Amino acid sequence: MFEQILSDSSLVKTHGYINGEWVVSASGNLFDVVNPATGEIIAKVADLGVVETQKAIVAAHKAMASWAKRTAKEKSAVLRKWFDLVMSNQEDLAKIMTVEQGKVLAEARGEVAYGASYIEWFAEESKRIYGDILPNTTTDRRSVVIKQPIGVVGAITPWNFPIAMITRKVAPALAAGCSVVLKPAAETPLSALALVELAERAGLPKGMFNVVPGLDAPQIGERLTSHPLVKKVTFTGSTRVGKILMAQSAQTVKRTSMELGGNAPVLVFDDADLDKAVQGAFAAKFRNAGQTCICANRILVQSSIYDEFVRRFTEKAEQFVLGEGLSEASTMGPLITRNAVEGVSTLVADALDKGASLTTGGTQPAGEGYFFTPAVIRDLNQSMRLSKEEVFGPVAPIFKFETEEEAIEMANDTEFGLAAYLFTKDQSRSWRVSEALEYGMVGVNETAISSEMIPFGGVKESGQGREGSKYGLEDYLEMKYICLGDI
Fold it and tell me: Which residues carry out catalysis (predicted)?
């Protein structure tokens, strides 16, 4: 068992966590957690469902009453201790993540630190929830605005960043005074359960953070969206599922925040620093084997530098070493499932059938695991699926454009609007293009744009709400106006 490689094997939990107790499912069912690098079953986890979700919601509602009354400093202290425990267990958490998700160990270590940064940030922001005293309308009245926790939060998170996507939601919720019922991805429940174990050690009261692992995501999601005690639903995942959850949440008029699909363009103009552009686009494309929502999904390069860009980009892609993430020699891990590999292969085949050219990669290596060699594709056009669909894998489609106007039009030709990037030395163009791009986040001569201090989120069908920064706390607070008369 992989627990042998951990310093603290007690971080590996296989039960759900409700009201401060580790629980099995009412049905007694278990589901398999598989190492995508080997195809081996690494754990069997309790398969919880609607019954357990109901119990978790009720427990969360009861627990929140006392937590919300704690002072900001008291809540902050618990969150800060949770942050310290996450960081002191960084190596074990990274190994758990690598085994169940596949990303190489260096990336997993980075994600643990990144995820922990949200706990630290919101521990501090919990002490900065301010209200207002409004101008008087009459001399005998005073008008006050206060902010209060919105209520029980239902959180549903994906498998690609199994720690960071949780802390970005749970930390601000707790900081605001809310309790949480979390449904983690069935592919990666072990990271979530390790996180809640550390939260318990930090002194978080029972019922404040409940984890419901299970295969029946639609039924668990429906319970979270329909239950009247749940006041907010936050989700990271596909636009298709996000729309379903939003529609369900409308029946009880819940607050929602959605971080949905992306189709991020990278615009490389002919006046760009080509070395920086290649490196930036490369890093944005292949992080986590291309399985990120703000990946470079379409690389748009101006015609005069197109061939040279493709040549340099291809050379870098050929240097990857595929392998199990625990091996220090590996520089790219597997995709999450066999279906993911087949999906990426289909997109590549579609482009090649319609006239595109493959400069490297695009194959499925023989052997165990869900690997796909990093692919670079050139000579694409707008008829190909790669121009419209999100690619969750290591495939870099490089398109050609002639003018700035054409590049903007190509970049905006999508229903998505999460992140976009551009490379240019022209400051006027930097402003012009940034303002014209229909995206919630834009990186100029930089693709490493995410941190706990920025408002992460998109526009159009990429979602609503923001995570991180001072704005990330507002999604978990309600504003209340109080009129004080007879002064």
Answer: 259
Distance CA 170, CA 176 (A): 10
Take residue 279 and report the two structure tokens written for it: 């490196």
Tokens of 288: 């986590």
Residue 259 among the catalytic residues: yes
**CA-to-CA distance for 249 and 154, rounded, in angstroms?**
11
Per the confidence metrics, is the pTM higher than 0.90? yes
H/E segment holding residue 482: strand 477-484
Amino acid at 40: E
Q: Which CATH superfamily is domain 2-261 in?
A: Aldehyde Dehydrogenase; Chain A, domain 1 (3.40.605.10)
Q: What are phi and psi of 335, to 5 degrees?
A: -80, 170
Which sequence spans correspond to the domains of the chain? 2-261, 265-451
End-to-end CA distance of the chain: 69
Q: Annotated catalytic residue: which of 52, 107, 197, 259?
A: 259
Residues near 189 by beta carbon (within 8 Å), at least 6 away in sequence: 33, 45, 100, 211, 213
**In the prediction, which pLDDT does 2 show?**
84
Angle, helices 164-176 vs 72-88, to 10°: value is 160
Q: Judge: domain 265-451, CATH 3.40.309.10.
A: yes
Residues 61-112 have pLDDT tens digits of: 999 999 999 999 999 999 999 999 999 999 999 999 999 999 999 999 999 9
Query: For 204, which DSSP code?
Result: P
3-state helix, strand, coil in the chain (%, to 5): 40, 20, 40
